[in-house]
Amino acid sequence: MQVKVETFTRSKAIPSDDPCNKFPVLVRVVVAPEEMPRAGVDVVTVLDASGGMQGGKLEHMKDAMMVVIDKLRAEDRLSIVSFNTYENRLTRLTYMTDHGRDVARLRINKLVAGGQGDVAAALQEGAEILWWREAESSRRVGCIILLSDCKKYEISKTEIRPEFPVHTFGLGTDHNPSMMKHIADITSGTYSFINQDIGMIKDALALFIAGLTSVAAMSIKITLRTNEGITMSSIESGGYVNLVKNNQVGTIEIDNIYASERKDFIVYLRVAEGKKELMTIGGQYLSHNTVKHLVNTDVYVVRPRQECVLGDLAIHPEVAAELVRITLEKGISAMLEKGLTMGGLQQLWEEIMDSDEGRGAPQETLAGLSMDITEMKRDIENPKEHRKSGLPYTLSWLTSRKWQRATIKGIPCSSGAIQTTGQDADGRTALSQ
């Protein structure tokens, strides 16, 4: 089975006489890492060629584009759009055969920076390119990559078409992290940045393309049905669409998933006294243009009449870890509206660590998140410097959590534990060259 579902209940047991109003179940969707047919991808790269990109930034961007061209396979297609005062479609969607790569390299090498940046018009052009694929879009993954130093551009929600994800890459310490995340959020994309050594953008794109070209399944729909005496109150699914009908049936939709990737979701259930069988999980997905169905998974708990042994009541470490991540993500998002502070971040983390979930989560998870918070605090007492370091890290971390996908936070090796096996291997290769 290419795609499968694993489940972890908060605890192995619920005392028989205790009704439980908010019982979390972790639903994990995983994809086998072995070799299998991959979906073809259509990538539109939107490249900033405005005056601010003159010199080193432009040359590093050209080098990065050569990596993209080399990493895409013959069945993948690439279109290149550049922008300064006006947008300019350098190539249509072109298969990356030897000839296609030669044409793309030629167009990239001719890029010259100058003028003002009109990122909104360029993104509109990129969306038009993908939109005109029509029937092909159901069989191929389509996305836009934006490479820009995006300094002073102002862009409204109405200026961006949301149909296709825009994965933004901010270049340099002077890029506008809030604007780049804004574009990513509207389009269901991710935000990454290279703020110090711009030359590392080629390694960052190598990691990104390694994931994108490993898409193993599309249009995944997970279906959850509760049993008698069990109702479903809500689903925590980050950016992925979920729906709960009549408190009995829930669905989670995932556009695509990489090989060896996993997605974790929390489903909250109300469990009546004595009920053991909680719900059944099934679903379907598209692989290599074929609809496949998931094997049904039953979720249950033990309901002993006598007092449970302590181990049966302990929170499962995987459930605890995901609950900690969700709480941290929500807390940081709420704080951003008023402004991050050293004290606010510290208090949030202390409250999480003092919770049942914090005490039950694996130390490895807590250590990783603690390091993330340290990076978010960087230069936080100096707003100008924080905008160059801690703030972009925070915003990139939030988009990574929202989609449970690796983002580049300053340097490629900081993309974190969400990397897939293929991305990790590709990253080690890129960084050693």
Question: Could you list some keywords that capture this structure?
Answer:
13 helices; Immunoglobulin-like; alpha+beta; globular; Rossmann fold; 34% helix; six-stranded antiparallel sheet; six-stranded mixed sheet; disordered C terminus; 3 domains; 433 residues
CATH homologous superfamily designation of the largest domain: von Willebrand factor, type A domain
Number of strands: 16
CATH topology category name of the largest domain: Rossmann fold
CATH class descriptor name of the largest domain: Alpha Beta
The rough form would be described as globular
Q: In whole angstroms, how far apart are the ends?
A: 36 Å
Average pLDDT level: 89
Provide the number of structural domains.
Answer: 3
What class would the helix/strand composition place it in? alpha+beta
Tally of individual helices:
13
Helix fraction? 25-40%
The largest beta-sheet arranges its strands as 5-4-3-6-7-8
What CATH architecture of the largest domain would you give?
A: 3-Layer(aba) Sandwich
Q: Overview of this structure, please?
A:
With 433 residues, the protein is an alpha+beta fold. It has three domains: 3-36 and 216-314, Immunoglobulin-like; 41-213 and 385-432, von Willebrand factor, type A domain (Rossmann fold, 3-Layer(aba) Sandwich), CATH 3.40.50.410; 318-377, no CATH class. Helices cover 34% and strands 28% of the residues. The protein contains 13 helices and 16 strands. Strands 5-4-3-6-7-8 form a six-stranded mixed sheet, sandwiched between helices. Strands 9, 11, 12, 14, 15 and 16 form a six-stranded antiparallel sheet that branches. Strand 7 (166-171), helix 4 (177-187) and strand 8 (191-194) form a beta-alpha-beta unit. Helix 4 (177-187) packs parallel to helix 12, helix 5 (201-212) runs antiparallel to helix 13 (421-432) and helix 7 (317-336) packs antiparallel against helix 8. The radius of gyration is 23 Å and the shape is globular. The chain starts with a strand and ends with a helix.
